[in-house]
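**User:** My hope is that you can spare some time for a protein that puzzles me. As I understand it, each token names a local backbone shape. I would be glad if you read both lines and explained how they fit together. The protein I mean follows directly.
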Amino acid sequence: MRIAMIHRDLSVPPRAGAHLHTTKLAAELQRRGHHVEYFCFVLDQNEELPFPVHQVAPAPESEGEAWIEDSKLMRNLQRYWATSAGDLLGMHRAIERARCDLVIGSGIHGLLYLRLAKRELRIWYPADDLFSTAMTLLSFSNTLRRNWAIFGEGARSLLIQRWCRDVPDETWMVAQRDMRSMRRLLGRPVVWLPNGVDLEFFRPLETPLTPHSAVFWGRLDFDPNEQALEFFLGKVWPLVRARQPEARLVVMGFAPSEKVVRLTENAPGVELRSNVPDIRPVVCSAPVAIFPFVSGTGVKNKLLEGAAMGRALLVSPMATDGLRGADPAPWRLCKKPEQWRDALLELWRDPRAAAELGARARRWVENNHSWEATGALAEESFERARARREERP
């Protein structure tokens, strides 16, 4: 099958979850014998990929407006998401030239591009429920202006999803909770396509452990990561340092926001490392990886990476959504600040228990979250979508 994968922008190595799961799935589908091509408008590629990547040029805006008939509301929504009529027409022409059988549109922009694909099978790959994600980000610690902006973005995503609900032949969500909410919203076929992880790249390394240390990583200008650090450094870390003054936490990620810089500067024993090219040696030097999420939806790719590297995982309930086969759970679940403190101190005092928990996490992710398994589920989705299309009168 000839497949087009669409996302508005692409960075390689990945700097966002969408870049990661679209390129990894595309590579797996290519390995399974499909011909895959990737299309985007903005490209920052510093590594080779096993499939061609095309940087698309927008069509002239006047041509796009003349060719695409949209209501004023739809044009305003597209403008909010920085998608012009010229963008839509340029992407449509690129896909037409590729003569694909199937188009996979990633994110909210992907849904807009799919509207123009008529002949091809259409899969929407938002991964997360954008409205639900926005609602989890509302917080009393935000300014009123920030909360209003978050709500506005969520409401606009909801309008686009409802407006375009008949566009996809099938929709992929990475978490079951998001799958259920999207089914209610769209009234259309929505399936669970859990993320995988590169088990060979993210493997345990023989690195000396730093005692009394933990690690957190991710994009540091991303709201859920900021709020996770705000909770942990504000409510948990002072309790930990009061019991263990030598405690150390390394925070790693791209583009740390002013908020993250301020949080880490004011927390004793915390080291901020930005734009680290290879996180693996640092992660594997810490006996414990923390995932204290209080907002956001979908699968936390960093949790899968931590499990693959054999770290002892401490997680909040919100961090475990979208995970397969977690019974018994290969991590410690923590809710209250005192539970986080006690779990950290216990694992630091008992390195053997931490190592055993990390080994369990590695076995679990090997059995449940390979990209090979995700690729097989994607192929099943293709066949269902094609069968439904053929049954139409």
About this structure: The first strand starts at residue 2 and ends at 6. The chain has 15 helices and 15 strands. The chain has a mean pLDDT of 91.
